[in-house]
Amino acid sequence: MSATTTSAEAVARVRLVRRRTARRGRLIVAVLTVVLLAAFAARVLLGDYLVTVPDLVRVLSGENLPGTSFVVLDSKLPRAVGAVLAGAAFGLGGALFQTVLRNPLASPDIIGIGAGASAAAVAAIVLFGVTGGWLAVWAVVGALGTGLAILLLAGPRSGARLVLIGVACSAALVSVVQYLFTRASLYDAQEGLLWITGSLNQAAWPGLGRLAVEVLVLVAATAALAPRLAAAELGADSAAGLGVPVRGVMPLLLVGVLLTALATAVTGPIAFVGLIAGPLSRRLNRDRVTLPGAALVGAVVVEISDYIGAYAVPETNLPVGVITGAVGAVVLIWLIARDPSRRRA
């Protein structure tokens, strides 16, 4: 067999694997979309107040149904939409960090970006009495400042270095929050505690509209930067050989910071979503990166967790961050236990 024939067969096998991977990726995205739609429908239609599909259609068409219109438009639907937007933003932001830095622990909620938003928001509540929409501004500034500081201190070449610096910054910011709670009044402490836990209780249409536009813009930016992401997966040296220097991936990390910051400003830091969405989508896609899959996994996790938090305990509405924290810890342990590299060691 000639070398030319062998090379042609190798190329054909690579193309076949790529086609199969692409088909599997599309299938996973389709399945996750169906699961998300089912979870969305359950969040809107089921629960303590049942809403029929005909009534939902009538409400969405503008008809006023006493009781039903208020429950759907002011409670159930905003929470369901907020869960999709925030979950997709957290999931996509986490997957960008993990892929670029080639480290499954390099998630924005682990390296302190959420803690930066929390510290800024609690400081605004306790020290300056800030409320309403300005809290979101403080949260975005805190998250962006923390993310940029960590990136500048660590540099994009070492994912392990960035994680260590991020964990240290997160611990320091948590200490700041705890100190602020010692100075807070009972009312301010309750508001701050609810905010830093991560909740959809305050989801409202103006904030959700802004978040929807912001997420769409950042998704478009991610799509435009996708070639850099593919090169970054190969490592800094290989990426530089392909014409993508280390600094060339910095915009991807900035997009990840923005996704996390803007979602946190609306819902607070919902724990573990950014950390587990990427690894779960990878496992579904046979260890291949799929950013749409990560975004959909994040949205599904937050949507289902919010439904569980609302109805699992009678007469108690648990913040969604409580549920994702409990579930995320179990999922993380499961992912580590089933890591193929661990079994080979």
UniProtKB/TrEMBL annotation:
Listed transmembrane segments: 27-46, 80-98, 110-130, 136-155, 162-181, 252-277, 289-312, 318-337
Molecular function, one GO term: transmembrane transporter activity
GO cellular component: plasma membrane
Lipid bilayer topology: Multi-pass membrane protein
Keywords, ordered alphabetically: Cell membrane, Membrane, Transmembrane, Transmembrane helix, Transport
Protein's cellular compartments: Cell membrane
Broad class of the protein's primary localization: membrane
GO biological process: siderophore-iron import into cell
Family listed: Belongs to the binding-protein-dependent transport system permease family. FecCD subfamily.
Protein's name in the database: Iron ABC transporter permease
Naturally occurring in which organism (per UniProt): Nocardioides mangrovicus
